[in-house]
């Protein structure tokens, strides 16, 4: 806050230390393989909800299929949670048991 010096009319300023802003924790949204959800549905949600290209969506879907789990995307907590709930609702509405989870990104 600026204060007026009574003697010579100049203004003295107080230096406030800068606060370091902490980056928000990022979360991975994970897709889990099952034997019922179609590959086409998984590719569709990767494209529509996670905004992946066709080739990236197919690559992620195949990774999930062969490895059991894969990363759909990495987001702040609120966005990751919203995407997870959106996909779970779409899967449920289409009769699929697709399971998703979130975990903090390391590093």
UniProtKB/TrEMBL annotation:
The Gene Ontology biological process terms listed for this entry are: protein catabolic process; proteolysis
Q: Which gene encodes it?
A: clpS
Note the subunit structure: Binds to the N-terminal domain of the chaperone ClpA.
Identify the residues that the record assigns to the Adaptor protein ClpS core domain, covering every copy. Answer: 22-100
Give the protein family.
Belongs to the ClpS family.
Q: Which UniProt keywords apply?
A: Hydrolase, Protease
So what does this one do? Involved in the modulation of the specificity of the ClpAP-mediated ATP-dependent protein degradation.
GO molecular-function terms, A-Z: peptidase activity
Question: Lineage in the entry?
Answer: Bacteria, Pseudomonadati, Myxococcota, Myxococcia, Myxococcales
What is the designated name of this protein?
ATP-dependent Clp protease adapter protein ClpS
Presence of the UniProt keyword ATP-binding in the record: no
């Amino acid at each position: 806050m600026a204060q007026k010096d009574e003697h010579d009319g100049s203004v003295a300023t107080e230096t406030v230390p800068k606060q370091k802003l902490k980056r928000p924790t990022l979360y991975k949204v994970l897709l889990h393989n099952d034997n019922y959800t179609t590959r086409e549905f998984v590719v569709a949600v990767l494209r529509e909800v996670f905004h992946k290209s066709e080739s990236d969506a197919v690559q992620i879907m195949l990774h999930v299929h062969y490895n059991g789990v894969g990363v759909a995307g990495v987001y702040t907590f609120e966005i990751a949670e919203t995407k997870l709930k959106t996909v779970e609702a779409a899967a449920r509405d289409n009769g699929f048991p697709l399971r998703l989870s979130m975990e903090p990104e390391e590093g």
